[in-house]
Amino acid sequence: RLKKLVGGGMERDRLAMESLSPLLRRHAELSELCRGDTKKQRRVEKLRWSLEELRVSLFAQELRTAESVSVKKLGAALDELSIEAGVRG
């Protein structure tokens, strides 16, 4: 991992974190809002694992992911759950 930082890897990782951080914040907020709703909590948990897959995709591509993930797909899934949870954006 450290070897990859040489030659532009730091910038690539910084950009990856910039795209991942808002998703992580939104997920944490939704986790709190959906507490007590078992069905929504299951979806929040599934999204958490998708975020972990995205981390692998962004930072350790050679490991490959179990499912196809992207910032755009996860953003859309979080948007959908936000609407269902009654969050106004």
Overview of the structural elements:
The protein has 89 residues and is mostly helical. 73% of the residues lie in helices and 0% in strands. It has helices spanning 2-5, 9-33, 38-59, 71-84. The chain is elongated. The protein starts with a helix and ends in a 5-residue tail after the last helix.
Which key phrases capture this entry?
elongated; 0% strand; 89 residues; mainly alpha; 4 helices
Give a nutshell description of this structure.
It is built from four helices and no strands.
List the helices and strands and how they pair.
Layout: H1 2-5, H2 9-33, H3 38-59, H4 71-84
The number of E-state strands comes to 0
Catalogue the unreliable spans: none
Task: Give the helix tally.
Answer: 4
Task: Calculate Rg over CA atoms.
Answer: 15 Å
Terminal CA distance: 37 Å
- The amount of helix comes to over 70%
| Overall 3D shape | elongated
Question: Could you report the average pLDDT, rounded to the nearest whole number?
Answer: 87
Percent of sequence in beta strands: under 5%
Largest sheet: none
Q: Provide the succession of SSEs.
A: HHHH
Secondary structural class: mainly alpha
